[in-house]
Amino acid sequence: MHTDLVAALDIGGTKIAGALVDGGGRLLVRAQRPTPARQDGETVMRAVAEVLGELSGSPLWDRAGAVGIGSAGPVDASAGTVSPVNVPGWREFPLVDRVRAATGGLPVELIGDGVAITAAEHWQGAARGHDNALCMVVSTGVGGGLVLGGRLHPGPTGNAGHIGHISVDLDGDPCPCGARGCVERIASGPNIARRALEQGWVPGPDGDTSAAAVAAAARAGDPVAVASFERAAQALAAGIAATATLVEIDIAVIGGGVGKAGDILFTPLRKALTDYATLSFVRRLTVVPARTGTDAGLVGAAAAALTRTPDVTAASR
C-alpha cells in the first residue's frame, strides 16, 4: 500500500478543520465543521467524525498512512486524551482512540495547538533552518512550543514550551491557571484590552474593545494603548529570555492575532529583550513574526504525523 499522505486535524473552540496533506506540506483536500463547543462530548466527536468522513470520501484517502491532531489544550499525548479549556464537554476525552477507530485503525499522533504551530513554523515558516527555536501563539491565550536539536520537542504529554504559564510577575494578578503573574495574564489579547480599558483608554465610535483596536489606537499615538502593548512586550520578553536561558534557543517566533500588531509589539519587545536576555549565549536571540497563516495548525499536525510515519508505513505493509 502506497502511503505518502497524512490526514491532519486542527481542533479549536471555534472550528474543527481537517485536510489530507502531502510530504511537501500541501493541503490537497480540506473539510471543516464549526465546533459545537457548548454541546456534550459526543456531539463534538460527531463533528470530528464528519470531518474525517468527508476526507475519507476522497479518492486520495487510501494514500493516508497516519493522522496528526493538533488540539486546543491541555492535551495528554501519553494518555491520548484532550481536555480543551474552551470545549467543556471534553474532559480527558479519549480522542486518539476515537479517531483511530473512526479511521479504520490508522496510527494517530496527538500534540497541543502551540506545538502544532511550532512544527509548522519550523517546517515551512520563520523558524525554518533553525535547530533551536521557541514558537509562540499570542491571541486569546498564550501558547507555544519548542524545537531543540533540530527536532520538535513536545514533551511526554505534548505540552512542552507552554510559555503562557511561566510566571513573570511574582506579585502579579491571579491567573485562571492558579498561579500569579503569568505571561498569558499580561500579554494575551483580552488582557491587553482589559488593561487599556482599566487605565482609561476610550474605544472609538464603533465600540470595538479588542486587542486589534488597542493596537490601532497605539499606532495612532494613544499613550494608554502604547503602554498596554509595552507591558505585554515586557512580559513576553521575560518569558522568552527565561526560555532562552534554560535551553539556548536562537530564535523566537510570534504568531497569533497579537503577533500581527507589528512594530507596536515588536519594537518594545526587542528593546525589553536587551534588559532580560543579558548572558552572552542569549544575546544573539532574534524575535520575528510567524510566517505560516491560518493553516498553521493543520500543517503542524501533518508535520507531527509525517515525522513518525517511516516506522508506521513499515508496520502497515
From TrEMBL:
<comment type="similarity">
    <text>Belongs to the ROK (NagC/XylR) family.</text>
</comment>
<protein>
    <submittedName>
        <fullName>ROK family protein</fullName>
    </submittedName>
</protein>
<dbReference type="InterPro" id="IPR043129">
    <property type="entry name" value="ATPase_NBD"/>
</dbReference>
<dbReference type="InterPro" id="IPR049874">
    <property type="entry name" value="ROK_cs"/>
</dbReference>
<dbReference type="Pfam" id="PF00480">
    <property type="entry name" value="ROK"/>
</dbReference>
<dbReference type="InterPro" id="IPR000600">
    <property type="entry name" value="ROK"/>
</dbReference>
